[in-house]
Amino acid sequence: MAQKVLPIPMPLGGVNKVVARERQPEDTCWDALNVLPFDSYGRARVGQRFGITKAWNLALGSTFVQGLLPVLVITYPTNNSTDGYGQLPPIAVIPIPSTKLAGIVSTWTSGGIPWSTGTGTGGRLSDGTAANATRPNSGPGGPIVPGTGGGTGGGGANNTWTVTAGPSTAGTVNEAYAMLTYGGSTDSIKVKWDGTGTGFISPGSSTLLIITTSSGTGTTLLAEHGQPGFYGSSTQCQVQYTVSLSPSSTGTTVTVTMHQTSGNNSTLLGTSTSTIGTAAIFPSPYTVAATVFLNSTGSAAPYVVTLL
Amino acid sequence: MSLPIYPSTSTFNIPAINSNYRSYLTAVVGGSTWFCTTGANPILATNQPAPSTSLISSTRLVSMATIFQKVYIVDGSSTIFQANPSTLAMETYSTTAGTHPTFCNLACNWRSRLILAGDINSPHLFYCARLGTPTDWDYSQTDPASAFAGNLSIAGQIGEPIIALIPYSDDYLVVGCAHSMWMLSGDPADGGSIVRISDSIGIIGPRAWAIDPVGTLYFVGSGGLYRLRPAWEKLEPAKNLSASTMNRFFDALSWNYQSIQLVYDSDLHYLYVFVTPTSSTSTGTHMVYDARYGGFWPQGYPRLVGPTSAVAFEGQNDPNSRAIIVGGWDGYLRVMDQGAFDDDSSTVSSYLVFGPLHPIPMQSILTAATVNFGDLFLGDASSTWNANLSLYGGPNAFTVTEGTPRNSTFINYSMDQRQKTARQRLRGEWFTVKIHNSTNNAYFSFESALLEFEPAGRNRERR
Q1: What is the side-by-side order of every strand in the sheet holding A303-307?
Q2: Which domain, by its residues, includes B224?
């Protein structure tokens, strides 16, 4: 009998363990492990399968994963932030410390951020005033909108802080701070109260500035620097500030603290500091602006935001 | 498909402005709920239930449903848990009407109704909350959107325990029982009907199903892997895909000892059939069904990889953020990564076995084996390629398959020998050819082979 040549084609039909051993179909194999009919490059040639890597380099616990479910979420800007929201690059926001998850101040409901490259005159308020401009003591407040034209860069951040209980409540506070990740010289910080008739208040230096809550449409109650806040039946407090930066600002910080007042006492609830990053390199001069909305519900009121 | 990896030190970055449309992966691990998205580390939901009160069980698989941007989680306890991906927080689930079902372990969203089932006290019942109001369980209302409950049986009988809820579309809800399949066609509270798809084929587990992009429902049921198109306008009765190729594998599955989950990879057209032992000390044998050629391909993953849960995740509307994600015994989420050659640092051992071959009706000598391993691709390094060839000969088909081969030889192929002819002489009447690799961070591919035999006389071995 002559020599016989037996071709073995690609087994694209996979593993077949049902047929008799002697009747193995031509395009199948009788056993395989960890191979697939298409290689890692998408061609139909049977080969070792691709591997598995960590999707996130963080274990979610020490026990097994009990369930997974994709969820789509759409969020819309919250109050007073429609003009600027959606038009500016994102701000980095630090995570809520896991050690401070319980408390009175409960949630951030939005976050946004403020760096746009140097294509404009800087972030602007809704009335057209540059966010870093000195403001009169009257005039509308409002969110920051992106600047246009050439020159300086700017942006705005809008964050909402919801207060769900009154200041007399004992216990810890959820220090869910929205933070600028970029810092600046503290004496250039300007603060604006989103009420009526007050406009910007410039601390002039790194002096504490404490603002009490107030009705968004009612009378504004504004504390002076370094003074405890007032009580009030407030619904919202808006703090809007701008920081002038220069290249040397890299590595400097902006600090935001949260205070809770009771009577004439003001309790420091927490401090969060962020450092300007190298990513924040813009044509000089450039500015960053951010807004913190402090909401309260029910009788909750006298929270103060301090910018250092 | 692959996802970028984010180190544990990465900063949570609230999605960019203009990116209000986000995709989260909700994960439950150790009784805690997490939200995962591309570009950041997973976030532990705030306001987790206190362990002493109503923490999600950490020892059971959970079932989740999302309705109106809320996630509802059941674990077989008396509590329905509620998570809010918008605020990244857990919330308290409170009924607004009626009394919510308890002890359910199945949940899904169908027509914006929260559907629950698997109540251990009434396993044959399913419960449907009011349309659009997942907190309304007032069954006394009679309007078309009202809540209702029911079971699945022919007249006068008690229904089988419900095993799986499959929200096929807004029009159809497929319900799998142990030995029957049913379908809610249209809303029963608004003139819809309940029909029986099969009175003999059931489903083997709550997660033993997947739907491909064109509406084909795959499920593992009694007797194998099935394909079904339940929608009447494109009805395709259940078809057994495994009976003629892999029957024993599916026939031997037991959901008391194995968790079976199906996930369809719409990019690669693979259906993953994950068969994970319920004991964390055992390693499962999984299966990939190739929808293009219809073949089955056994797979093995490291024990810790599991998977205990799996999902096809579509990230930020970006092909690079679509992935098959698997959750393991160790609390990690991993991704099937086409760019990886190992399993999270574990070697992928792989092999192909051809045969048994009976070249001529007498004893023969295998004189040459030419294997074409195919071309390499630009950028491939020699260190990422390795293949071994083992040839086995014996007097009958059994000895060269499940038995012990009489003769064998082994050849290693380096990258530049991918079309090499090996001239080892091997005697036998039956032969098998095994191509394999156990080198870490290396792979092989196979295109064809040619075996040359010459007669060697009558088989002189005693049988």
Answers
A1: A210-211, A303-307, A253-262, A265-275
A2: 25-335
Is B279 found in the same domain as B149? yes
CB contact under 8 A, B297 and A70: no
Instruction: Give the Cα separation of A255 and A211 in Å (integer).
Output: 16
- Among all residues of chain A, which has the CA nearest to that of B385? A48
Q: Determine whether the interchain pair A50/B27 forms a contact, defined as Cβ–Cβ distance below 8 Å.
A: no
Say yes or no for a CB contact (<8 Å) between B5 and A54. Answer: yes
Same domain, B134 and B251: yes
Q: A40: distance to nearest CA of chain B, Å?
A: 6
Q: How far apart are alpha carbons B115 and B134 in whole angstroms?
A: 9
Residue where a domain stops, chosen among B335, B367, B383: B335
In the predicted structure, residue B156 carries a pLDDT above the cut 50: yes
B58-79 pLDDT, tens digit per residue, is 889 999 999 988 999 999 999 9
| pLDDT at position B12 over 70 | no
**A150 in B contact zone (CB under 8 Å):** no
Domain membership of residue B342 (yes or no) is no
User: What is the rounded distance in angstroms from the CA atom of residue B392 to the CA atom of residue B385?
Assistant: 23
Task: For residue B296, tell me if it sits in a domain.
Answer: yes
Strands A105-108 and A158-163: antiparallel
| Least confident segment among B135-139, B202-206, B338-342 | B338-342
More confident residue, B38 or B74: B74
Contact residues, chain B, for A9 at CB < 8 Å: 448
User: Do B311 and B403 fall into the same domain?
Assistant: no
Of B28, B44, B299, the CB nearest to A67: B28
For residue B235, name the pLDDT band (cuts at 50, 70, 90). confident
Q: What's the structural domain count of chain B?
A: 2
Which residue among B26, B32, B450 sits closest to A69, beta carbon to beta carbon? B26
Q: Considering chain A, what is the average pLDDT of its residues?
A: 45
Nearest to A64 by CA among B261, B436, B264: B261
Q: Are strands B97-98 and B89-91 parallel, antiparallel or unpaired?
A: unpaired
Q: Is B16 in Cβ contact with A89 (below 8 Å)?
A: yes
Q: Which of B335, B363, B382 is the last residue of a domain?
A: B335
Q: What is the CATH number of the domain that holds B321?
A: 2.130.10.10
* Closest CA of chain B from A174, distance in Å: 10
* Average pLDDT for A26-42: 88
Q: Is residue B208 located within the same domain as residue B311?
A: yes
Same domain, yes or no, for B100 and B140? Answer: yes
- The predicted pLDDT at position B320 comes to 65
The CA distance from A85 to the nearest CA of chain B, in Å, is 7
